[in-house]
């Protein structure tokens, strides 16, 4: 294959993947941060919009923006198998070379230099966009038999690439660019390339959390539209989920801020002088739905300021609250559906706005401050009922969490939200800084039908399990509902691995198909409809709670139970769509 810029015909060379990988090599070749930034800013300043948004993602060691649900999900074994199919090297040789280099990128570079298959489209140079498009197609290829389609898509990429390009494709797939760049340096380069203040680039980055969008706004001189200012809604920080208090304590190993999980709708309150706005979870203006809150909001005060001077953005929950107890979420929903908010409905379904975070105060953006400091600031603000500060406690033990959980449920709330006191406010991101703990849904008993080899510390063990329930309507056929790899100890995985090898029906190298004998009890966050599995459903955040040695495939749950749980959730989903 021709490995040179000569093959690139188009005038706009900056959009070509080959140009990109040469830049990466240049950046890798210098230890000077200044030089890295110079190379990069010069490169970025010459790009069109589409290629720019892809280039900054790739350079930040990402394929899709932070928070995106898409992932290419290609493992080492798929890459090795694809390389052996198109090169003159068999699987054994590939393994040996990998062991020699210890690096998948270097292995790919070598293998592609030994390529025997010739692509029909060989003459077409890869561009940043065509590579990204191919990655997107790989990520979108999901479902029971997706492995082969993914390999074909990957093969197409490799067949069109030079050895150096193949090296970078592999590095990107594995999330191991390692060219001495951090997202921070990419931000510096964006600021330099488009002549924008670094402080503003960073603030926009904090708000949007997506380097692609930030680079485009910088290029267009529109970064100010992403800034945190009253009356300009900010994306919400979101919570992750954990199933037990034990898991939370184990994970954080430090005191946490613990609040009730209020069963209402998320709302952002903005005050700018005498103007008040409430924005919904979808960032639409819903001020008219809460007239009694809007009028009281004007009285929000700081001991040291005069009223009209306070500008702020608060984050919190609007709940329906009557006679000292929260009303059911459906009552709130009923009120929100009404076009006119009459006096009668405000009496029947009175509202409380529970404030749990502050995003902006009097010219100062708060999101970079740790939560404990934001809470301190909130405690100094005086609110007038029905706007109140969220009740909070510090917890440091399972017992502490359990006690507050009971208290929350007794008071009619949904559960708890536990928050890392050192965390910033990350707009638009779901992370482990906030953890919701709700009453656990039922668990499901399912049987393992496929097991895959794990990676890293789990390499060599069968640690990823695809499991199924029975479908009573089709002769108890097994229907897959998910895949889980967390929840078991190393010892348990070793025991299961041994057992799986004895009940293997087929060995595909990277996975084994097994007789349905091992029953797992699976906990999960919720159930989604999905065409990924042949059951039509997928468990979200599945975790293995127990290996049910006391159960056989006859005892596993059936599809109607899955459907029943799914239907129970519809209420919650409605809620999230408010
Ligand atoms: P999720 O929307 O899936 O991230 O679940 C968390 C939701 O719980 C938030 O969006 C809020 O609407 C709601 N919530 C209720 N109470 C709290 C609280 N104290 N802190 C944060 N979120 C809360």
The rounded Rg comes to: 27 Å
Cofactors, ions and other ligands in the entry? adenosine monophosphate
Number of DSSP E strands:
21
Instruction: Provide the residue-averaged pLDDT.
Output: 88
Fraction of residues in helices?
Answer: 25-40%
Percentage of residues in strands:
15-25%
Largest sheet: 7 strands, mixed
User: How large is the count of helical segments?
Assistant: 20
Unreliable segments of 5+ consecutive residues:
1-11
Going by helix content, strand content and strand pairing, the class is alpha+beta
**Spatial gap, N to C terminus:** 55 Å
Described by the principal axes of the CA atoms, the overall outline is: globular
């Amino acid at each position: 294959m021709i490995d040179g810029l000569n093959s690139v015909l188009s005038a706009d060379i900056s959009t070509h993947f080959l140009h990109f990988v040469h830049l990466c090599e240049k950046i890798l070749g210098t230890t000077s941060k200044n030089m890295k930034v110079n190379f990069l800013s010069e490169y970025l300043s010459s790009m069109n919009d589409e290629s720019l948004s892809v280039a900054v993602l790739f350079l930040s060691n990402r394929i899709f923006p932070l928070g995106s649900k898409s992932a290419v999900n290609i493992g080492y074994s798929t890459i090795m198998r694809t390389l052996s199919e198109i090169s003159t090297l068999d699987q054994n040789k590939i393994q040996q070379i990998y062991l020699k280099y210890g690096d998948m990128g270097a292995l790919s570079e070598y293998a592609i230099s030994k390529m025997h298959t010739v692509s029909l489209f060989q003459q077409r140079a890869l561009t940043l966009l065509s590579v990204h498009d191919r990655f997107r197609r790989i990520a979108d290829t999901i479902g029971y038999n997706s492995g082969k389609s993914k390999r074909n898509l990957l093969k197409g990429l490799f067949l069109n690439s030079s050895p150096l390009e193949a090296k970078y494709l592999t590095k990107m797939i594995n999330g191991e660019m390692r060219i001495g760049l951090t997202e921070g340096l990419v931000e510096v380069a964006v600021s330099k390339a488009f002549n924008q203040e670094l402080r503003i680039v960073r603030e926009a980055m904090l708000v949007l959390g997506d380097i692609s969008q930030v680079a485009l706004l910088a290029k267009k001189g529109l970064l100010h539209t992403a800034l945190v200012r009253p009356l300009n809604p900010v994306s919400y920080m979101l919570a992750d989920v954990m199933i037990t208090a034990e898991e939370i304590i184990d994970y954080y190993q430090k005191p946490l801020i613990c609040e009730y999980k209020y069963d209402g709708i998320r709302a952002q309150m903005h005050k700018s002088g005498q103007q008040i706005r409430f924005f919904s979870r979808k960032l639409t203006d819903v001020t008219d739905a809460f007239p009694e809150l809007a009028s009281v909001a004007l009285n929000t005060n700081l001991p040291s300021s005069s009223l009209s001077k306070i500008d702020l953005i608060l984050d919190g929950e609007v709940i329906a609250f009557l006679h000292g107890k929260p009303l059911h979420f459906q009552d709130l929903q009923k009120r929100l559906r009404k076009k006119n908010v009459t006096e009668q409905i405000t009496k029947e379904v009175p509202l409380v706005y529970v404030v749990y975070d502050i995003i902006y105060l009097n010219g100062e953006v708060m999101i970079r401050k740790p939560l404990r400091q934001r809470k301190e600031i909130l405690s100094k603000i005086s609110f007038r009922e029905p706007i109140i500060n969220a009740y909070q406690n510090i917890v440091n033990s399972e017992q502490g969490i359990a006690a507050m959980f009971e208290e929350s449920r007794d008071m009619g709330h949904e559960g708890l939200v536990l928050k890392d006191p050192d965390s910033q406010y990350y707009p638009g991101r779901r992370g482990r800084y906030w953890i919701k703990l709700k009453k656990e849904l039922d668990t499901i008993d399912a049987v393992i039908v496929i097991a895959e080899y794990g990676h890293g510390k789990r390499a060599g063990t069968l640690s990823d399990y695809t499991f199924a329930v029975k479908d009573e309507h089709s002769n108890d056929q097994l229907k897959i509902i998910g895949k889980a790899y967390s929840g078991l100890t190393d010892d348990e995985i070793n025991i299961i691995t041994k057992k799986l090898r004895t009940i293997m029906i087929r060995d595909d190298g990277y996975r084994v198909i097994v007789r349905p004998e091992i029953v797992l009890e699976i906990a999960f966050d919720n159930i989604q409809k999905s065409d990924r599995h042949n059951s039509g459903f997928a468990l979200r955040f599945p975790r293995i709670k127990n290996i049910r040695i006391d159960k056989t495939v006859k005892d596993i749950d059936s599809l109607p139970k899955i459907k029943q749980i799914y239907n129970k959730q519809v209420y919650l989903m409605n809620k999230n769509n408010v």
